[in-house]
What does this fold into?
Amino acid sequence: MKNKGFKWKSLLWFIVTAVGLAADRITKAYISSAMAEGEKVEVIKDFFYITHHTNTGAAWGMFQDSTMILGILSVVVSIGLLYFFVKIDNWPARLSLAMIIGGALGNAIGRIFNGRVTDFLDFYIFGYDFPIFNVADMMVTVGTAILIVFIIFFYKEPEKENAPKIEEGKEKDDKGN
It folds into this structure.
């Protein structure tokens, strides 16, 4: 008989979301209090800097001045992802959704309560100034990458109970005709 009570694995996914969300909020609070807007600190010359930057849009400067709409949309999408999270019982998919939800909520909090998102991780990759990002962005990106790899390479559709059998281009009904 299966135990239908508390599942410890559920707590693990909550911890992934909570730790990611906390790391995002703590790093943003620290950067906002310790650095002036636009201030840049060199970590690795010509490669990695900590730069205090805020934006009112989405990734790569899209949808500027849409902060509240993006914040509400992030919450709504997180609720939708939570629905799928409850419906699936597969650890790579759950890990990816836990990360995406944590990241989406991290940026939603900044948008809704501060009117902007704080970014600070600033990389120059082979001379290209990559858009500045934050911990929440990393969670959404890594979670999405895990989900894509899982869906493309590992996910198998469950077989339907009353699906017609297909044999050499012919469908058969339940009676085998």
